[in-house]
């Protein structure tokens, strides 16, 4: 399964960059028929947080319908601009 590539379809609605290039996804675990995503947001007060988490859930359920998806938000380690990939930096112009 190429779950990490599939997650590139989930776009942060404010920055218009996918969550993988933003470095929001910390881990993906697949066990039997379950997918567990460990991710963060750019801040705990992110106004689009529920939209992003819902986007992850919907995206994975569409692409992997035989798997139950769980998204766990974590705040440690805290997200920083250092998490952004080189492609993400290019897209953001930084």
Automatic annotation (TrEMBL):
<protein>
    <submittedName>
        <fullName>DUF59 domain-containing protein</fullName>
    </submittedName>
</protein>
<feature type="domain" description="MIP18 family-like">
    <location>
        <begin position="2"/>
        <end position="62"/>
    </location>
</feature>
<dbReference type="InterPro" id="IPR034904">
    <property type="entry name" value="FSCA_dom_sf"/>
</dbReference>
<dbReference type="InterPro" id="IPR052339">
    <property type="entry name" value="Fe-S_Maturation_MIP18"/>
</dbReference>
<dbReference type="Pfam" id="PF01883">
    <property type="entry name" value="FeS_assembly_P"/>
</dbReference>
<dbReference type="InterPro" id="IPR002744">
    <property type="entry name" value="MIP18-like"/>
</dbReference>
């Amino acid at each position: 399964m190429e779950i990490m590539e599939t997650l590139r379809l989930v776009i942060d609605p404010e920055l218009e960059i996918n969550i993988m290039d933003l470095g929001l996804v910390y881990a993906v675990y697949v066990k039997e028929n379950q997918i567990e995503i460990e991710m963060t947001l750019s801040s705990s007060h992110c106004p689009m947080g529920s939209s992003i988490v819902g986007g992850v859930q919907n995206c994975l359920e569409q692409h992997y319908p035989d798997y139950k998806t769980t998204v766990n938000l974590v705040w440690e380690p805290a997200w920083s601009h250092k998490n952004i990939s080189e492609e993400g930096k290019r897209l953001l112009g930084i």
